Amino acid sequence: MKKTIVRTLSTAALFSTLFAGSALADTYQVQKGDSLSKIASKYHTSINELKTLNGLKSDIIYVNQVLKVSNEPIVVQAPKTTTYTVVSGDALIKIANRYNVTVGELKQWNNLDNTIIYVGQVLKVSTPGTGTVPAPKPAPTPAPAPAPASQGSTSEYTVKSGDSLSKISVQFNMTVTQLKTLNNLKSDMIYVGQKLKVNGTKVTTPAPAPAPVVTQPSTTSEYVVKSGDTLGKIAIQTGMSVQDLKSLNGLTSDMIYVGQKLKVTGGQVSSAPVMTSDFATNMVNTAKSLMGIKYVWGGSSLSGFDCSGFIYYVANQAGKQIGRYSAEGYYSRAYYVDQPKAGDLVFFENTYKKGISHVGIYLGGDQFIHADEAHGIMISTLKSPYYTAHFDGFKRFY
Hints:
The chain is of the alpha+beta class and 398 residues long. The protein folds into five domains: 5-76, LysM domain (Membrane-bound Lytic Murein Transglycosylase D, Chain A), CATH 3.10.350.10; 83-121, Membrane-bound Lytic Murein Transglycosylase D, Chain A; 153-198, Membrane-bound Lytic Murein Transglycosylase D, Chain A, CATH 3.10.350.10; 220-265, Membrane-bound Lytic Murein Transglycosylase D, Chain A; 279-397, endopeptidase domain like (from Nostoc punctiforme) (endopeptidase fold (from Nostoc punctiforme), Alpha-Beta Complex). The protein contains twelve helices and 18 strands.
């Protein structure tokens, strides 16, 4: 005879379990810092049983993922608390995700005209008058992993700028795990020009017609500095890095002056404004142009950056006038986004100190660019165990 488990579930997980006879399953919503081992220990089961019960092919899990932790029937007792008191660092989107409701519902239940909340504020997190929390939307069924491609169709792919393992795996209908196994990769890091073995036929999509570019016969041309120019801005316009621009012109500092003539490569400089209406694109392009510049504590110039100095420099170069703050300062001047885009900020907590302590710029594909203490300006992956453990969230400048 099956035993009956009586448990008071958290508000976020109250209605994630629906009665369906003896096949009913106890579920758990993954929290930050969780692992299969930690969850298995909590529910007195094994990692293999968890993976089998949830059809998992690897040990990778993600925050808010709903996992089955038992096949036993559950009698759910409704929680008594249907309100939440705001604490430091909260945002409506974080509270909505925690209680599996929408921001719109929170605003409606609490008569809010905007998303601004304050510490100590008491919010209703369930439908007023019912004493129950709305049933969450069912977790999406994970798509089945693509079948391994035939070894007979192995070909070679050369990594290009902007590529990631995730992006390449989609192009060739592979999984990231298959791609790493085929190439004996120990991490998700790849570099431009790297040769990778791939299986299957490349999935092609029509590429947009490139914008016309005026070039000169010579690979080196001359650019006259105009008012408002910086080395970073000129580097973006010419497709160069700041370091290459300084080396080509024998510059030992970042100082340039109006009327100064600089050697540039990559063709003639376009006279059209460079993405002045697209701040996010400018953020990404400016950030990438600084790759390799060394780490300097408190630095915010081309001589060296720390993480917040990097954000200060890039944001101002990209067209946003903002002061020089710490990571926490930029954290308080941005709002949470649940669907991040390239150019958004990504924050980490409890690295070298308690609380928000590190910040970078999201590039998409689980990659971000930041000032690393050991390697300077570099691209890292959010799938790294270290950054996964310290990840706080994505935010966007107000």
